Amino acid sequence: MNLLSHRIFTSVSALPENWDDLAAGNIFLTKRYLRVLELSAPENMTCFFIGVFDGDTLAGVAVSQFLELSDVGSFGVRDNCFKTKIRNFVFRRYASHVLILGNNMLTGPNTFRFSKSISQKSGFIALDGAVKQISKSLSGKGLKVHLTIWKDFKVEIPKDAIIPDVEKYFKFSTQPNMVLDIRDHWKTEEDYVSDLSKKYRDQYKRARKKNDGIEKRQLTLDEIKGSNDKIYDLYLTVARNAPFNTFWLAKNHFVTLKEELGDDFLFYGYFLDGALIGFDTLIKNGTSMDTYFLGYDENCQRDKMLYLNMLYNMIGYSISKGFKKVIFARTALEIKSAVGAKPVNLYGYIRHQNGLINSWMPKLFPYFEPEMIWKERHPFKDEEQPASSPAAVS
């Protein structure tokens, strides 16, 4: 096994000229997306771009992020309970400095790509060296890393491609990635609807009827800029309702995405009586459509079933444009399941710098990241229905 080297970059302009030759299969590792991170990452996030080299040849690309959680004003305001206050206190004191191999703003295997000329194991050894170098550099700036995380593997790492010191890491799996596989015979949204069982077709019709009066329109770059303050307020309405937040998007994030990704970034505004009441965003990633951040007015969301209609719109657009999958990411698992998305488990590896705390990680992790209890839905006619099928989402 050849020993590989690594280089760490903090500026896209310094990346090797042929970086995108390796990254091209995943837009989230290409220079133009990494430039979005460089120009509009959350204030508490520092991004690093890692090149893996076999001699002078670029053989791997990866992204890493350092999060200062003590800079997050609130980890989440929805669950205002004693346990949450304890969790937040512990995070700030013992886990506020987090180094992630991966992208904390995305769900899925968007961490690295290796050339076929190297083994995954040798690539992991090089990435481990980069992570350790980043940690040492941060420590020299007075930012001692508490937690190190390798993020979002689609399968558990096989023994012949293990990350170094893996026995010191706790393997975890949290909320799954919700993915809709688009069937070959779906050519229009109507084809999708016709495959739904009666219960879920009725749900679709009810949502669409509630959507009367809503105008959906794709926004241009200038329109995004002109509505930026309102867009950010709508984003915060949704983000603040999450039980746990590790960052807040920068106010210029959506503008920067449109500037850098162009037609591969889609921004849809939802208007009622001329006023912007919601938005959703999509990013084209090869044959997959990745859903991104969204926002809405809470009152309109309830009255107009706005979120459910957004999901249907994302599906309809992806079908019409010939995409193979819709990546719905984590959160809101049941409603995404109700439109046909299936859970895909993702695995990560975490370790604490303090050996004593790390030895307790198997017990501590479930306490601070409790298992999500939810019911998987089976909305299609040809799916085997459970004996006691839950009611459709309202």
What would your notes on this structure say?
This protein is an alpha+beta fold and 394 residues long. It has two domains: 5-164, Aminopeptidase, CATH 3.40.630; 178-344, 3-Layer(aba) Sandwich (Aminopeptidase), CATH 3.40.630. The chain is built from 14 helices and 15 strands. Strands 1, 2, 3, 4, 5, 6, 7 and 15 form an eight-stranded mixed beta sheet that branches. Strands 9-10-11-12-13-8-14 form a seven-stranded mixed beta sheet. α2 packs antiparallel against α9 and α6 (198-210) packs across α11. The longest helix is centred in the first third of the chain and has 21 residues, at 120-140. It is globular, with a radius of gyration of 22 Å. 35% of the residues are buried.
CATH architecture descriptor text of the largest domain: 3-Layer(aba) Sandwich
* Helix fraction by DSSP (H/I, runs of at least 4): 25-40%
CATH level 4 superfamily of the largest domain: Gcn5-related N-acetyltransferase (GNAT)
Low confidence ranges? 75-79, 387-394
Q: Using the alpha-carbon principal axes, give the shape.
A: globular
What is the mean pLDDT? 90
What's the CATH class of the largest domain, please? Answer: Alpha Beta
Order of helices and strands: EHHEEHEEHEEEHHEHHHEEEHHEHEEHH
What layout of secondary structure does this protein have?
Blueprint: E1 5-9, H1 19-23, H2 31-40, E2 45-54, E3 57-68, H3 82-94, E4 97-101, E5 112-114, H4 120-140, E6 147-153, E7 170-172, E8 177-181, H5 189-194, H6 198-210, E9 214-218, H7 221-226, H8 228-239, H9 253-261, E10 265-272, E11 275-285, E12 288-296, H10 298-304, H11 306-320, E13 325-329, H12 333-338, E14 342-344, E15 347-352, H13 355-359, H14 361-368
Helix pairs in contact: 2-9, 6-11
